[in-house]
């Protein structure tokens, strides 16, 4: 009887952890989530939710009293309420702070959120290190035949047209990053890699690969017609 509430609250905590990581690694969230630090982060959310449910059932045992005082007759609605309270309470507690202090001009939360933020920062670095090598190999492969001068305007425009539901703030962030790359003085072979990384971070490797192939074919066709 008591197994499925713990399973449900664990699922809720894990789902929140996954969503939080997906929002950080939009170009390839599956590859990021498979990394051990990301799994640890999800496990902490799961453990906190399960612990919260256990504590609630210990502190408020009357919640388990069903019709006629029989725990076996606790309604599904009551269980859903208990699981929801436990899951949201644990996740809110982990992200709460008593106050914020300024340390070296950086606003730092004082409270449980400090632990979670510190862990997230460590996970960010670990995941970044873990996916840096495959990202480098992917961008070198995808952008190897791309001419920066020909692609700097056409490729972003085509990629954004492919992504019909891309939030406006993501498009603006991408445009600002591309303008920085255009204005930089690094060699063109480095510039085109940075250009590809900016696009990859927004639209993902698969879409970027297809867009580069389609654009290259179009340029070749135009050249053949001249």
SSE inventory with pairings:
Elements: H1 3-24, H2 29-33, H3 36-59, H4 76-94, E1 99-103, E2 106-110, H5 112-142, H6 148-162, H7 168-183, H8 188-203, H9 205-225
Antiparallel strand pairs: 1-2
Helix pairs in contact: 1-3, 1-4, 3-4, 3-5, 5-8, 6-8, 6-9, 7-8, 8-9
Number of strands: 2
Widest sheet, order of strands: 1-2
- The residue-averaged pLDDT reads 79
As a percent range, the share of strand residues is under 5%
- Count every helix, treating DSSP H or I runs of 4 or more residues as helices: 9
First and last CA, distance: 75 Å
Class from helix and strand fractions: mainly alpha
What does this structure look like?
The chain has 226 residues and is mostly helical. The protein is built from 9 helices and 2 strands. A hairpin with a 2-residue loop joins strand 1 and strand 2. The relative contact order is 0.10. The mean pLDDT is 79.
Short synopsis of the structure:
The chain is mainly α and 226 residues long. The protein contains nine helices and two strands; from the N terminus they run H-H-H-H-E-E-H-H-H-H-H. The chain has helices at residues 3-24, 29-33, 36-59, 76-94, 112-142, 148-162, 168-183, 188-203, 205-225, and strands at 99-103, 106-110.
């Amino acid at each position: 009887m008591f197994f499925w509430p713990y399973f449900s609250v664990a699922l809720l905590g894990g789902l929140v952890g996954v969503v939080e990581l997906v929002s950080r690694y939009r170009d390839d969230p599956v590859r990021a989530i498979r990394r051990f630090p990301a799994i640890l982060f999800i496990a902490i959310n799961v453990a906190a939710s399960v612990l919260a449910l256990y504590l609630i059932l210990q502190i408020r045992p009357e919640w388990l009293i069903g019709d006629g005082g029989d725990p076996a007759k606790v309604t599904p609605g009551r269980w859903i309420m208990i699981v929801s309270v436990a899951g949201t309470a644990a996740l809110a507690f982990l992200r709460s702070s008593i106050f914020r202090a300024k340390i070296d001009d950086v606003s730092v939360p004082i409270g449980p959120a400090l632990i979670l933020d510190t862990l997230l920062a460590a996970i960010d670095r670990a995941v970044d290190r873990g996916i840096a090598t495959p990202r480098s190999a992917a961008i070198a492969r995808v952008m190897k035949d791309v001419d920066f001068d020909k692609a700097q305007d056409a490729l972003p425009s085509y990629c954004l047209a492919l992504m019909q539901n891309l939030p406006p703030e993501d498009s603006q962030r991408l445009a600002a990053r591309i303008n920085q790359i255009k204005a930089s003085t690094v060699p063109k072979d480095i510039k085109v890699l940075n250009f590809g990384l900016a696009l990859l971070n927004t639209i993902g490797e698969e879409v970027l690969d297809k867009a580069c192939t389609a654009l290259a074919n179009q340029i070749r066709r135009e050249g053949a017609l001249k």
